[in-house]
Amino acid sequence: MSSTSRFLCAPLRGVVVPLGEVPDPAFAEGALGPGVAIDPLDETLHAPFDGEVIQCARTAHALTLRDDHGHEWLLHIGIDTVDLGGEGFELLVATGDRVSVGDPLCRFDVDGLSRRAKALVTPIVVTNASDLALETLVKPGTIVDKGEVLLQWQAPVPAAEIAGREVSTQASARGEATIAAAHGLHARPASRLRSIAQKHDVELRLGRDDEAGKDRSDVDGASVASLSALLNLGLIRGDRVLVTARGAAAQAAVDAAVMLLETPEHDAGRADVCAGPSVAPAAEATPGTLNGLSASPGLAVGPLVRYRAALPRVADTADDPERERRALAAAVAEVDADLERSMRAAGSRGQQAEADIFEAHRAWLDDPDLRASAESKIAEGASAGRAWYLALETEIQRLRGSGNALLAGRADDLHDLQRQVMQRFATHDAVATTGLEGAILVAREMAPSQFVEVAGQIGGLCLAGGGSTSHVSILARTRGLPCLVAMGDALLEASGERVCLDADRGRLELAPDERRLAAVEAEQARQRQRSEADLAVAFEPVTMRDGRHLHVAANIASGAEAQGALDAGADGVGLMRSEFLFLARQTAPDLAEQQAEYRAAVEAMAGRPVVVRLLDIGADKQLPYLALPATPNPALGERGARLWQAHPEMFDTQLDALLEAGRGLPVCEDGLTRLRLMVPMIADVGELRWVRRRLATRAAALGIERLPSLGAMVEVPTAALCAGTLAGEADFLSIGTNDLTQYALAMDREVASLAARSDVLHPGVLRLIALCLEGAGGRCPVAVCGTAAGDPLAGALLAAMGVDELSVEPARVAVVKATLRRLDAEALAAQLPALLALDDAAAVREALATMLASSAEAATPASGDATTSTDTTTRS
Ligand code: PEP
Ligand code: MG
């Protein structure tokens, strides 16, 4: 009988134990079915295959999953753990959930269980196929990594299917088509051809048909299973192709393929496959100019350079090819599972173009030619990571050298896949990207860690996606680096040896002439002069024209940045985003490292207050070593204090480090401690009380008597509405306008197409802020640390509304102080009811700009920052 191999991946890292050695006769004697067990070294159980959760034990210690071939697998964490009544387990899925290999299923407290359970060893058995001959691919007694292929078996191919296949191999069909897609046969339609072949279970091939009249029975062409082979046909619009299929449904498959090839794409104007979410194409204001949303103001001139993420370093060689082969299969499966999740999420958001992109990436991963090439390198002694690098590099070079701009563009997609799989084998962090001095860097999206790596070299940044409150935008402002976001896909096709990035006006000029370049140079000189003048008085406290004082503090991401904040004239640190210490590394920083970082910030600020925001992980900020449960909408998933309750060890280490860093420091003039803690994502006062109790417990354990001052961020609308209650418990409040705006308007701050409308100046968001200030009622100080604080218009309005502090990126401290000194806050406050009565943010922006411009005429003209009515900048 014909058969096919099937696999199961390890659901967690641990020591492989034969089932016969499990200390429970029901498992050891095979009564529950054949299988294997793992003694866990991890605390999260993951899906070992794609399938469905068909049962979750009420006590959360065991789950049954059905794989896509009908086998039902029981995953049982520990022995006799049912007796624990669910304590120490946290289910991350529910019965009926569809899961992909690698999805987290259940988190458990290894330390607690190892004290209370008979054993932690976790059997994995198939319960509805007692005669299944399983082969364990990892030696008992050795450690298997999560996701590594653990079990293999041969599954008989059903007789009906075999009969079908036999018939099918005889059936064949052929058809002809003319390529209609404007960009030719690029990766997206190519991956759809592959789906057609899979759906009809046929072997589908495509060949050039450029020799009219010739007997074409020998046209062989490329299998659609191989994306690289298909793209290397180099088919462009108007090319004739032959489509052939073998299999029972050959004719239907050929018909579907011909129809696909002959149908022009609806979005033919769009660029082809690019990693990451799609955004609306940027409007081209004038020929040779691309528009975007200004995330960080400034002017820069330089060559336009496309960003390529640095590749991680991997081992060159390995001595067990079989193990490497399995490791590569597991890594590819993991990346594929990630892509599938992204594809499904995009599909469920209705973003089909984006889903197609991920589908195309999955097709690359599944390309048999690439896989075979990697496996042959492994056979020659290469490690899995190196073999993957070499296999894809050959293809990347081929695409780049093809002379076809479209194919060359696909090299970036392959580079991304190269990096994602290699990341699974990284021995060291990536080699730093160099050679970008003065470049205007172009990328679709960038992770904060990627930005930090290149920020010191580049002159400016242009992103096709992103929003002005995304974390890369925040980092760009921190450094005073001109940056435009939400520029659309047209950006990715742009080129230029000497372009001008005018982030003040939201424009990228691709071919500025000499006159324009001279004007830019003059403007840069003027800006330098103005900021020198602002900086000269930046160390003075701010008194507004109506006599009120206001603090201008800085937002920083590390202890080292505190020095820059002080040099910029900041009155303190209003927000230290501590999660940046945790990002872009393989393990969490330990107590000593964190303590040193917090202490460095305090020392640099020389007596001024430093507010450290406790770890704010979730949404766009993910840690590789902290698997968060997959959730359809991460911005609404487990975040802030709710996340810490699930990871008390990490949270306690941070509290201890902060307590130690603040030990023995004198209090500030305002009666609060010099080092202050701030809790993100607070939804109600109970969460803040939980943190205070935990802080008190940790302080008692460390023998520290005085607790640091504890504040709450107001970034969830309920926190703004309940500010009265919060102010009774908090030592201070700080409004995080980035998240407050996104949650109030239900507009994701990471979605580029919403960036222009996701504006803090929406009358509804302003009303929430007004309610927050009214609720706090002077019982504790209220700051603003979101991007709005540094927005020329919004910052002025917030000052007029009565906030006590604006905390902005260091590069904006001087200009914000200069602007506030010219502001008559009382007069502007009188206009607030009129602004709140307007229809939308655009109307408020316009009215506010007019008010400030006329009020500025009455003041000494200086930077003119608040009167920049062309402002497309910094929102929320
Ligand atoms: C905010 O939400 O406004 C804020 C300051 O926090 P972050 O931007 O880091 O989410
Ligand atoms: Mg926030």
TrEMBL record:
Span of domain HPr: 172-269
Required co-factors: Mg(2+)
PROSITE patterns: PEP_ENZYMES_2 (PS00742), PTS_EIIA_TYPE_1 (PS51093), PTS_HPR_DOM (PS51350), PTS_HPR_HIS (PS00369)
Source superkingdom: Bacteria
Any matching Pfam family: PTS-HPr
GO biological process: phosphoenolpyruvate-dependent sugar phosphotransferase system
Record family assignment: Belongs to the PEP-utilizing enzyme family.
Protein name listed in UniProt: Phosphoenolpyruvate--protein phosphotransferase
Biological source species: Salinicola corii
Lineage start: Bacteria, Pseudomonadati, Pseudomonadota, Gammaproteobacteria, Oceanospirillales
